[in-house]
Amino acid sequence: MKRINEIVVVEGKTDSQLLKELYDVDTIETHGLGLDDKTLELIKEASKTRGVIVLTDPDYPGLRIRNQVEKYVQNCKHAFVDRKDAIGKKKLGIAEANKEAVKKAIENVVTFSNQEESISWKEFLELDIIGDKKKRLKVYDLFHLGYGNAKTLFKRLNMVGISREMIEKELENEGYSD
Questions:
Q1: Domain ranges in the chain with CATH number 3.40.1360.10
Q2: Considering only CA atoms, which of 104, 170, 168, 107 is closest in space to residue 142?
């Protein structure tokens, strides 16, 4: 069984159980939106020694938790499971996700940094992603950036250093052309 060196931050027990079926891994559970200062401090300490990967549900509460951790803990890695792969019978979440989607998310972690802008707002607008939800979701998927609106996509593209040229090349490979 493959070992993950970083500690994976998840929302709950069932998320931890699923990860432990797939990997030799240690997790920290946020207890959903019940994430408190004590848990944030634990995540911060873990990031200093082993690093952390944030893997939250692809929904609004998951995004809030991810943003809270990102704000408090520098240099987190992020793993994203697509919404379509995380829908169960009654819930949406990591515990409901298919195992291959979770593996793909762990293998394609990204690190956000506050570096200089890699794509300008003007270039982003010129890609015509805002008016085309299918194209926007394709860009999220191609670069393993999770799910969100156009503004979030713009922010994440800059945080991981993806340029207009890189987006155009990937879209072209996928059969999108202007």
A1: 1-111
A2: 170
